Amino acid sequence: MVMEFFNILSTLSVGVLNTMLITLASMAVGLAAGTALLLANQLAGPRGKMALRGSIYGVQSVPSLVLIFMATFGLPLIGIRIPPMLTVVACLGVVASAYIFQILRGALESLEPAQREAGLALGMSARQIFWSVQMPQVWRISTPGLINEFTSVLKSSPFAYVAGVPEILKEAQVLTAVTSRGMPVYAAAALLFLALYLGSTRLFYALYRRHHIPGFEET
Amino acid sequence: MALLEVQNLALKYDGKTVLSDISFTLDRGEVKVIMGPSGGGKSSLLRCLNLLERPTQGKIFLNGQEITAPGTDVRSVRRQIGFVFQQFGLFRHLDALHNIALAPVKLLNLTRRQALERAEHELDRLGMKEHGHKYPAQLSGGQQQRVAIARVLAMDPKLILFDEPTSALDPELAREVSLIINKLYLDDISMLCVTHDVHFARMMCDKILFLDGGSILAEQSPEALYAQDDNERIRKFFQVTKGP
Questions:
Q1: What pTM value is reported for the model?
Q2: Most exposed: A1, A196, B40, B204, by fewest CB within 10 Å?
Q3: Of residues A117 and A14, more confidently modeled
Q4: A54: buried, middle or exposed (CB in 10 Å: 19+, 13-18, 0-12)?
Q5: Cβ neighbours for B202, distance < 8 A, ≥ 6 positions apart
């Protein structure tokens, strides 16, 4: 019985690499796009801000599964074919970027305005202030929120099975079809996600504490 | 030629007049203090002078060059005019030395090493040598304000504007910062300082601009202003500080 469970685990762990790849790549896309959106929001005029916020709320309101369905089954109909892995990463990344934008924006708005003014008064440009003064602090303040978003992306990664990417859930489905033993298989899948969740959050928090600066909240 | 010349400056917000018909000059090495009741336009005036606020009317000249003219390089003007805030505005993720060195690296094209050397020199000048590696959260208010002043000095400005630099500090720390500013006065640095501290004004300035309702009511030496009897508004303002 125990042996069998270990066999199941080792079979499923083939999908772990893809699950991590999807999660990390989606987060990378989300972080880059979320930061770009934040900078755009910072430099945009009132109308640009409105348009930006509107589209971000739009993206936030669409479930990622719907987006993946649309990209996987909709795009080929109009002649656009994208590799499944790329489709999934793009969809999860776009959704993550909207949430990450909101996390970063909250952190940016929590900075005392005097810092920005001091930068301007020294002669720095808004862009220089963004990268050298605001973002280094925004990263630190948003870390807990970003770790939270990471786990949320991790748990959205099984949607990749829709596109046919062999991640943990896809492997579990195949294994269930072969063995007709759903319970231990899915329990093993859940266990793998738990391990990934604990491992990665621990790692991130350790990094966060290592780069701690006095004056920023401890976790 | 005066270092700074302000001609008929006015500032309006949504139709509300914040400043009107402000004119004065500041010579090299001169120090003037701006006093007056809260809401009288003191901070707005300072913010206009380094273009953090765009004046609605009037002209400002720095070294004879009109900085309110269209097409002026605003950032180059700000580089020449230091601004010390009431709330310090230190960058909270950088230690004292890097707070000071950031702008010289970004704006004066100094290498990191040169900028840090300059930062060390400025900290030493303000008696803060041993605090260079502390972060803002590890410094007292007075020490933070001294770092903020050092940060401004490192840009080698032609003029320094102080916006109530001691208001956020208790009397002891305020005195610490006042002494630093007084030292700069003795070093012949041109300064304009908004303050409510009457003793501080007497100690360090040549002339006081009394600002109320967005206009300059008087420009006089501290002694003359404190003693004057002609203007009821000014007399009442200083009566409070002198006691009955």
A1: 0.88
A2: A1
A3: A117
A4: exposed
A5: B222, B223, B226
Average pLDDT, rounded, for chain B: 91
Query: What's the confidence (pLDDT) of residue A11?
Result: 83
Which residues in chain B have Cβ-Cβ distances shorter than 8 Å to A213? 92-93, 135
Are the beta carbons of B155 and A122 separated by less than 8 Å? yes
DSSP state of B74: H
Q: Which of A111, A124, A136 sits opposite B106 (nearest CB)?
A: A124
In whole angstroms, what is the distance from residue B71 CA to residue B48 CA? 16
* Residues of chain B contacting residue A130, judged by C-beta atoms under 8 Å apart: none
The complex's ipTM works out to: 0.92
Report the residue from B52, B82, B89 with minimal CB separation from A115: B89
Q: CA-to-CA distance for A186 and A191, rounded, in angstroms? A: 8
Q: Which residue of B has its CA nearest to A125?
A: B75
Query: Under a CB-based contact definition with an 8 Å cutoff, are residues B46 and B161 in contact?
Result: yes
List all residues 6 or more positions away from A12 whose beta carbon is below 8 Å from its beta carbon.
A168, A171, A172, A175, A185, A188, A189, A192
Smallest Cα distance from A198 to chain B, Å = 29
Locate tokens 């601009």: which residue? Answer: B209
Q: What is the mean pLDDT of chain A?
A: 91
CB A198 within 8 A of CB B74: no
| CB crowding B41-65: b at 16 or more within 10 Å, else e | bbbbbbbbbbbbbebeebebbbeee
pLDDT in tens, B118-128: 999 999 989 89
A147 vs B243, more confident: A147
Q: 3-state SS string over chain A?
A: CHHHHHHHHHHHCHHHHHHHHHHHHHHHHHHHHHHHHHHHHHHCCHHHHHHHHHHHHHHHHCCHHHHHHHHHHHHHHHCCCCCHHHHHHHHHHHHHHHHHHHHHHHHHHHCCHHHHHHHHHHCCCHHHHHHHHHHHHHHHHHHHHHHHHHHHHHHHHHHHHHHCCCCHHHHHHHHHHHHCCHHHHHHHHHHHHHHHHHHHHHHHHHHHHHCCCCCCCCC
